[in-house]
Amino acid sequence: MDKKRLFRDLLDHFQSDFPIQENPFEIIGRTLKYTETEVREGFKKLLDEGFISRVGPVFGTHKVGYSFLAAVKCDPSRVDEVAEMINAFEEVNHNYLRENELNLWFVLTGKDAEALDTVVEEMEKKIGLPVYRFPMVKPFKIDLQVKGAFR
Q1: Is residue 112 one of the residues assigned to a domain?
Q2: Phi-psi group of 65: left, alpha or beta (phi > 0 → left; psi -120 to 50 → alpha; rest → beta)
Q3: DSSP state, 41?
Q4: Distance from C-alpha of 97 to C-alpha of 91, rounded to nearest angstrom
Q5: For the chain, where are the E strands, in sequence order?
Q6: pLDDT of 87-141, one tens digit each?
Q7: Do 2 and 37 form a contact (C-beta atoms < 8 A)?
Q8: Total structural domains in the chain?
Q9: For residue 42, what are the domain limits?
Q10: Which residues on neighbouring strands pair with residue 68, listed in sequence order?
Q11: How many whole angstroms separate alpha carbon 29 and alpha carbon 40?
């Protein structure tokens, strides 16, 4: 099996329209002419090597649950440590480093505002830093899918 072709096929065809069915990896395999095992291993390798950050849905903001952008002011010497602690919370969608006073940014998603209040309180205790919250003022949809980008 050509791993590069598998990776390209997975990225080209299933960044959108991921099958929401009982066995999506089998369906993807059948569609792309791979085995279910090859598809699972392909996604795992893409995750392990950092080509993708996760396999899962992206929901419309406030359509399902509640979310907001958050940031912390973190000493550069602690960025990796703090990012790892933040990432340990299942409510963290993704995070990124910025060159700013508030330098570690992330998105929190949960069932409602009260549930995320509890998460933020726990997070602040764990990381020893205040978490600043930024409510959505205007939604922007960013489609990162670029057909053929892996070639």
Answers
A1: yes
A2: left
A3: H
A4: 18
A5: 66-72, 92-97, 104-110, 132-134
A6: 999 999 778 889 999 999 998 988 899 999 999 999 999 999 999 999 877 766 6
A7: no
A8: 2
A9: 3-48
A10: 108
A11: 9
